[in-house]
Design goal:
The chain contains 8 helices and 9 strands. A hairpin with a 2-residue loop joins strand 4 and strand 5.
Length: 199
């Protein structure tokens, strides 16, 4: 008795049926579900079932009534790094600390332990920076310390921000700020904050 051979079309449909909208997939994830992964990937991209983000990295678009939704940064970065140990944020988040910063930044920082450099994933650029330590989520104390770490990179009036930062110091919980400084501050930031705290 002969075994029925699966048609190429049904193989692609079966693979498409495994995809979940909003998820990011690596080629090797999909290779386990396909006997001709590269051909199937080309067909799924052509049909709009997958969107290529980078070499070997694909998004299954999630649809809304207005069209495809952009993927969550955490989903894209997690797929790229093959890891969940990272912190994603925009330097625009510094504005929430109340140091007079007002610039909006069209870039996304990714603190992680694996990759360094600027990578285009889909139509977005991510600035990956290897850091020995970073929090699981943003806190006011971390943003304050990290802003001082990166002040020279920001399009802000440096002296005005430093004056505001020094004046804002008493508004923070001293213990939490000290821990954030010790854990996340650069050498220069730790030195500056110790001088301010001891003054």
């Amino acid at each position: 008795m002969s075994v029925p051979v699966e048609s190429p079309q049904s193989a692609v449909e079966r693979l498409a049926g495994q995809l979940r909208g909003g998820r990011v997939y690596r080629r090797e994830d999909l290779a386990r579900l396909s006997t001709a992964v590269d051909r199937h990937l080309r067909e799924l991209v052509a049909a709009g079932k997958l969107k290529k983000l980078a070499q070997g990295l694909y998004l299954a678009p999630k649809q809304s009534s207005y069209g495809p939704l952009p993927p969550a940064d955490e989903e894209v970065v997690g797929g790229f790094l093959r890891d969940k140990d990272f912190l994603v944020f925009s330097p625009s988040a510094y504005n929430a600390v109340g140091l007079g910063t007002t610039q909006l930044y069209n870039r996304t920082l990714v603190y992680n332990r694996k990759r360094h450099g600027v990578f285009r994933l889909g139509n977005r650029q991510f600035d990956f920076r290897v850091k020995p330590r970073f929090p699981r989520k943003l806190t006011p104390e971390f943003l304050y310390v990290d802003l001082l770490n990166n002040l020279d990179e920001l399009a802000e009036d440096r002296d005005a921000v430093l004056r505001q930062a020094r004046g804002k110091l008493p508004s923070f919980d001293a213990d939490r700020l000290r821990r954030a400084t010790d854990n996340f501050g650069s050498v220069a930031t730790r030195k500056r904050l110790r001088e301010w705290m001891d003054a």
